[in-house]
Amino acid sequence: MEKQVVVIGLGRFGRSVCKQLYELGHEVLAIDIKEARVKAASNYSYYAVIANAADENGLKNYGVKNFDYAIVAIGDSIESSILCTLILKEMGLNEVWVKARDPHHKKILEKVGADRIIEPEKEMGIRVANQLDSGKLLDYIELSNDYSIVELVATQKLSNKSLVQLDVRAKFGCTILAIKQKGNLNIAPMPHDVISKGDMLVVMGHIKDLKRFEEKGF
After folding, report:
1. Kind of pairing, strands 184-187 and 175-181?
2. Which of 30, 37, 72, 91 could form a disulfide with 65 if both were Cys (CB 3.0 to 4.6 A apart)?
3. What is the pTM of this model?
4. Which ranges carry the RCK N-terminal domain (predicted)?
């Protein structure tokens, strides 16, 4: 379903989000105060305009309040990021997602009502560290301080065994959400589905349980 999204701030993070949303078929309004960034963004957005993110009238003139979602990706001015977030929330947008530069910035964004706060450097750092720590881990998504979703490659130890035989939930407290086998994604696999060596398992659970499953189950 096509969404209307305004991306404010076209640094590296904002550009990346803007490009991906555009390629996925969404209607994207790209905004930045720098002309060169706006000019570049015209190639991967429906509209790209020069505007001050902290100028409420300017944002209203471009119809920002009619959009469903906003992503505030301003990285060089915490003040502009906070003020822009506040303006967008007062306009009544359904969802306002904001990039935070540091914990102090994040705390203020929480107080002004940001719907989701993104810390790209922190999130990527956690992913890289967990991948390096594991050796079996393909990807890592933090759901909260305690729970995560991971992608693991099935070893020979799991090969030719069904989910009911492995009984991962009872033994480790984890849930296998999906199995990817030779390009086919099996979402919500059944108890008698069989795992083969090299399959990708998408597993959800408490961080400690996931670690235990990885170390003892594999």
Report:
1. antiparallel
2. 91
3. 0.66
4. 2-118
